[in-house]
Amino acid sequence: MKLIEAANYEEMSQKAAEIIIAQVKEKPDAVLGLATGSTMLGTYKQLVEDHRQNGTSYRNVRTVNLDEYIGLSPDHPNSYRYYMNQHLFSHIDIPLSQTYLPNGVSDDVEAECQRYEQLIENLGGIDLQLLGIGRNGHIGFNEPGTSFSTPTHVVELAPSTRQANARFFPSLEDVPHQAITMGIATILKSRHILLLAAGTAKAPIMAKLFEGTVTIDMPASVLHTHPNVTVIADQEALSLVPDEKRKVHAK
Ligand SMILES: O=P(O)(O)OC[C@H]1O[C@](O)(CO)[C@@H](O)[C@@H]1O
Question: Are 4 and 251 in contact (CB under 8 A)?
């Protein structure tokens, strides 16, 4: 696991965007694994700006998102499809037909999970997977206790996750109880994983991550078992990570 330290959120976003742009330039038909949440907003903004100014093209890129709420249709303002269209897809030249998210309103969510897993395989796997980290260590919506061998599956969201995400909804009651998420096994098949973290709310979980213990109680800890993980974090998120741990992982 390589750590790139950033001074602040803006710098984290810029460094993340540089890695994504480099991936797309190296492989114009790359498969990008994308994530949602507040952490990613700055990165998507940078990608949009770069597309406008430098013309980086996404015409042949394919994208697969980590997760989607069950019960929210693509045009629901809190669905992750809506988020992706609003913050990224509608501002770059990617055809929407090449952007994929799990279908949260499928009649058969179990079959949808299998379809999504197969889709990722049919695309040739993920070249670069972007990840945020939940305050309880979740990646995608893989909550603590999730087996590391799970493929795409239906999850019951932890009360703390619903609480953390309630800020985007009119009230806590409106936050869905379930989601479809790529599993940890799905995420680990990605050829390169880029985890982003910013802000003091993430400091305790980042300290735990860099302690290095791999346990299903902390889903992100599985990233220590992957050969190609880059973490970009700002100083607030790293504020509880001791200097010696930072040095060990410094790029
Ligand atoms: O970036 P945020 O909003 O802190 O969220 C962190 C993670 O939690 C989720 O929003 C799910 O709760 C992920 O999509 C995200 O990567």
Answer: yes
Average pLDDT (214-238) is 98
Q: Count the Cβ atoms, other than its own, within 10 Å of residue 133.
A: 25
Domain with residue 170: its CATH number is 3.40.50.1360
pLDDT band at 251 (very low <50, low <70, confident <90, very high): low
For residue 23, tell me if it sits in a domain. Answer: yes
**Domain span at 6:** 2-185+221-235
Tell me if residue 60 is catalytic: no
Q: How many domains are there within the chain?
A: 1
Catalytic residue flag (residue 136): yes
The closest of 149, 136, 114 to 217, measured between CA atoms, is 136
Query: Is the CA virtual torsion 129, 131, 137, 139 positive or negative?
Result: negative
Angle of helix 41-54 versus helix 9-26 axis, rounded to 10 = 50
Candidate list 5, 50, 51, 67, residue with the active-site label: 67
> How far away, in angstroms, is 141 Cα from ligand 1 center?
8
Q: Measuring from each residue's beta carbon to the nearest atom of ligand 1, which residues come in under 6 Å?
A: 35-39, 132-134, 141, 161, 165
